Amino acid sequence: MNLQALWTSVINSFWFVPAVLVIVSVLMAFGLVWVDRAYYETIKESLPFIFTGTPDSARGILSTIATTFATIVTVLFSITVVALQQAATQYSSRVLKAFTERRGYQIVLGSYVATYTYSLLVLRSVQSETTAFTEFVPQIAVTVALLVVVINVGLLVYFLNQITKSLQVTKIVDIIHAGILQNINKLYPSEIGLHYEEPEPVSIVIRKLKRKEQPLLVTSEKTGFVRNINEESLAKLNTKEARWIYIVIKPGDFISYGQTLAKIYPRRRDLKNLVNGIREALSVDYQRSAEQDAMYGLRQLVDVALKTASTNDQTTIEYSLKYLGDSLIRLSQRKFPSVKKTFPHTKTVFVFKRTTWEEYVSLAFEQIQPIALSHQHVLSVYLQTFLLLAKQIPVKERIAPLKKQLDLLKKELSKKEVKEATSRLINKLEKVVMKKCGCE
User: Could you report the per-residue pLDDT of 76-127, keeping only the tens digit for each?
Assistant: First the structure.
């Protein structure tokens, strides 16, 4: 795993924010105690509003805070685990990332652990007057502990409110949808203009580049899902011996040990550094990530629909379809990058396998189609979503995958009796599709 991918994995992990807050609490504890020791007499005279109790009262306050927060942390973790278990059971295990990656939950849990740590560290510095020690009460540190308690009360109310909302299906699909839109804006930033042509398919690009030369195969030494392809790392490689390089996998693909990752043309000896560089530029992990994989969010919405179909929850399927439709509408209006790319200071052509518009449409509609055929209400929502998408597609090149899905749907509907309202929707959809593709 390259450093950029490792850092992204770390900052998106559930424990990162709590760990940072605990480190901050440790630094605060030692720093404030040092300030108290260095300016003890000055503090007592100039800041009358801060804590002025005895060592015993300071110990009592700090020990109570530590004990209470240890209990609260246990309860919060229990609530979180129950919420995750319920979400995985009701919807899909893939939606768990929508919970664990939310900064709000991480801040709340981290704040409580940090307060517990802070209280214990400050507690050890409190001293009663004896023959060996002079009396010392870290007044500022204790005052800060009391202020943090007040803040944490507000965070607890926030947490309970958010955890209650997050178990509602509308909130879950909304969180997933927000992640999809964020990815679309990052991966496909440019909108389609008046004159737009779809990039050449990878098969055609390869056919143009390919000669009789044999490639050097770059095989995988790992097993898992491709999270990231670091193009910056690829640009820095010494590729002067290669005329072109084909990266045959894309983010979201599962790779096995020994599977081909890339092909270097033409085949040469002594390309070990280039082979290792390509391997290092590909980040592989045990699960998929939305980092460079816009299909991952769509996959989550489809999974929610499929999971709830087993309980006949047609409303949840409806929500999933509507958010899927909106995601595809936004995606349909974005330019897709070319599969062919060259980097500065090199003549080597890189060819990337990228997700196509047809793959997005197929993922969103194919697996939900059998559910729609089994429920009249879902079928109606399915067709309405389809119709809305067809109306808003800006270029005719992107209507063909919809026509393919429509033909599959009509073939299945021909085997059963169809209500009049459904027939009208299909006819309307067919007219829109035929008009958009110029097939009238």
Answer: 888 877 777 777 676 666 666 666 677 888 888 899 999 999 999 999 988 8
C-alpha–C-alpha distance, residues 72 and 64, integer Å: 12
Beta strand 340-342 with 216-219 is unpaired
Place of tokens 């084909």: 246
pLDDT at residue 1 is higher than 60: no
CA–CA distances in Å: residue 131 to residues 127, 134, 233: 12, 8, 65
Question: What residues pair up with 283 in beta bridges, in sequence order?
Answer: 228
Report yes or no: 13 and 287 within 8 Å, Cβ to Cβ.
Answer: no
Q: Is 351 helix (H, G, I), strand (E, B) or coil?
A: strand
The DSSP 8-state label assigned to residue 94 in this structure reads G
Residue 281 structure tokens = 């530029």
Helix axes of 55-90 and 139-166: crossing angle, nearest 10 degrees: 20
Please state whether beta strands 349-352 and 244-247 pair in parallel, antiparallel, or not at all (unpaired).
parallel
Query: Which ranges of 47-199 does DSSP label H, i.e. alpha helix?
Result: 55-90, 96-100, 103-123, 139-166, 169-187
Whether pTM > 0.90 for this model: the answer is: no
Q: Are the beta carbons of 364 and 260 closer than 8 angstroms?
A: no
Topology, domain 202-285: Aldehyde Oxidoreductase; domain 3 (3.90.1170)
What are the tokens at 194?
């008046």
Quick one: tokens of 5? 């991918």
On the question of pLDDT at 48 being above 80, the answer is no
Running DSSP on this structure, what letter comes out for residue 334? B
pLDDT score of 99 = 67
Q: What percent of the chain has pLDDT over 70?
A: 92
3-state secondary structure of 286: coil
**Domain range summary for the chain, segments of one domain joined by +:** 3-167, 202-285, 295-336+356-437
How many angstroms separate the CA atoms of 384 and 415, rounded?
A: 21
Per-residue pLDDT band at 62 (split at 50, 70, 90): very high
Residues with Cβ within 8 Å of residue 33, at least 6 apart in sequence:
121, 122, 125, 138, 141
pLDDT digits (tens, 9 = 90+) for 255-276: 999 999 999 998 777 788 899 9
Strand, helix or coil at 102? Answer: coil
Question: Is the preceding omega at residue 201 within 30 degrees of 0, hence cis?
Answer: no
Q: In residues, how long is the chain? A: 440
